[in-house]
Predict the 3D structure of the following.
Amino acid sequence: MHHLLTVAAGIEGGGMFSFGLIRVGFALCFALLVGSVSAVAAPMGEADARHFLERTGFGAPPPLVAQFARLSREQAVDRLLVRDSAGFHAAPPSLDYQRPSAGRDLDESARKAFAMQQREQGMALRQWWLEEMLHASTPTRALRERMTLFWHNHFVSSQQKVKSVKLMLDQNLLLRRHALGNFSVLLHSVSKDPAMLIYLDGANSRKASPNENFAREVMELFTLGEGNYSEQDVKEAARAFTGWSFERETGTYLWRPGMHDGGEKSILGRTGSFDGDQVLDILLAQPKTAEFIVGKLWREFISPTADATEVRRIGAAFRSAAYEVTGALRPLLLSKAFWAPENRGALVKSPVDLLVGTLRTLETSPANTLPVVAGLRQLGQDLFAPPNVKGWPGGSAWINTHSLLARKQFLERLLRAEEMAPMGPMREDRRRDRGGRLEVHFDSLNWLNHFAQDPLRVSKALLALAPVEAPPTGLMGLGLIRTLLLDPVYQLK
Amino acid sequence: MERRKFLQGVTCLGLSHLIPDLAYATGSGRLLVLVELKGGNDGLNTVVPYRDPRYAELRPRLALKPGELLNITDNLALHSALQPLMPLWQSGELAVIQSVGYPQPNLSHFRSIEIWDTGSRSDQYLADGWLARALALRAKLPGTLADGVAVGSSELGPLAGSRALVLSDPEQFRRQARLASNSNAMTNGALAHVLQVESNVVHAASQLQLNHAFQTEFPKGGFGDVVKTACRVAASGNVSVLRLTLGGFDTHQNQVGTQANLLKQLAEGLHALRAALLELGRWQDTLVLTYSEFGRRPRENQSNGTDHGTSAPHFAMGGRVKGGLFGAPPALDRLDGNGNLPFSVDFRSVYATVIERWWAQAGSGEILGGRFKPLEFLRS
């Protein structure tokens, strides 16, 4: 015991951990008592630390990698999943609610002004979220932003259809509030979220003509997944959701009892005069729901193809944890598959991974983030505007002949201290689309100091796998970084 | 599935006689242009059975009136927005294939378009586009740019798994292509995909020529741009398939104005496509086909729109098309339990027509997972 306390004291003397000291002590103690220090309990080293940070956050800043390299896998997961306070990097934009169809009642010039205002507010909103991701102050906060984006891609709504920036912001705040909270609470809340009601046409669903779109998407996309319900289940569920409505004047959820079908329904083998919330509970009670979510989390964090047995195991753990999100994340991040060598570099970086991750890894950020927001849209990931109800498909879909070139070109731009004159005349709309000059002051010499002039260490810091084209021997400096960033492997994480 | 693996599979099955040798010429230069009407076009208001009393009964507000219709037969009329296509109907270059669908229809956008794109059964899940399988068996002609090019969508759809390009701006593509490079690394998974795309870029860029100036004026707007890009690719080199996408057809609410606008864009775009291909001397070797994940429900909904449906009519156009009607008209008296139309032409028959008649290729049964009878809308 004395030996362990000395070890614990030694760690404190190193000035690293200010919390979790006792946990470290107990963890070591237990491990020694058990008789073996498993991979989970040993310090993970730089390769694992880089992998862990890049998958759970955005990019892998070298100082953070060094810190986490000294932790064991279990310690890293514990540290990551700690309950955090709900702070922001910057306050969300202050927006007033305006009726989405307000533009229609106005004359031509007023309508144009309204559209312009929506566009500007939309840009401000995107910038705000991007900056929350870019400046997330801890790995936990970075994970929270990643999970907010994950839920945004699961409970999809798009500003293009919702036509209210304020409602999109409210939905985003809701998703973030529960991102690392409870999935059941999140499901119940987001199903009544005004932006969602508008997006899924749930707002006008009435007894005489229930809107099936909403019920179908709740089953197909939010909970069970395809093939786990029948058309009849959809029809019956649609009846239960009648009465859920949206008050246009105030932009809030409204319950309209006169529109509700209170009759008996049969859904997934249960019968009763269910309302919408009760239907959600029926869906949550199905093991398939937990497995559907876990499968998606697997594809987000581990690899493109989920292991069916593991999904069932972790799905069961998720339900045992009463749908606490960390109850799924913990077993996922401690699974063999998460750490397996064959799953390194197995995922394609999303545009957010690519742009935000690169900026964070290189420890730099532009004064004006508007070009980065524009970049995300060009690369196919316009925040607040996923392409359709199913969200961004992700994975290999991020990379095609058009997007691959756009991605590489953006990385090149990022590395230039100032933007060079564009080749050929640039059309005015294209200039506007690019959001203006991308000015990033990347101090490459300072950054490279992390690696003591060792090109191999630079490569290991930037790439999940060995590069496809090994850089010429002796290449260092910005040239080395550029070569590595343009290597095909850099598109992966 | 990579081309190599599919060919290996074909050899294993003793089907190696199906791989054409390079001297095989019939049907080899022929272009297929697929036009995706994304969202589920309401076929009933596109090719309209205006004399059927059930039409107006089911759609008291949405039914098109005589002033909004262009008669093509005693019983059928086209939505008036399709006016630019009337000359093609009159010259016999436009065929209407009615009631195209499939058994056990799926009403989800994603699942249904997946079924159409992969050419699968409703209960089957395939990974590759049907064209990837078809193109794997085609000889690569000299000067081939790519197997197929997708314009107007970032998804490859029926071309998934083939050597296909997603293209939006050809000049920009060629400028940026210097950032890609070929590599010989043997690998699989995500990295293999990235390397394949790099290689496709390098190859296409080396083949793409952009100096053709068209006389044809292309319509303004998104779809006009898509058509223009497609024509520039066709002018540039050999390509077997062009897949164009026009989106916005998911008209759950306020359908009338939206659909009219979209059909106008479609008709004007296709008219320009024909004119440009005539300039290139390629109209005789081109077959244009529309497709969509589904049609829409005959009965209108409470929001002046329509919900997801099943079968719908589609168009075939080209220099060798035999104009007229194919398949059976919409059976408004035989709606299913969901109030949706039965189909009379399985979409895989349309695909079989492309494979067997248009490209004169064997192996249609293997590609489509069964025998589907080709239709007779091609003259030769």
In short: Residues 297 and 340 of chain B are 5 Å apart (CA to CA). Chain B touches chain A through 39 residues (CB under 8 Å).
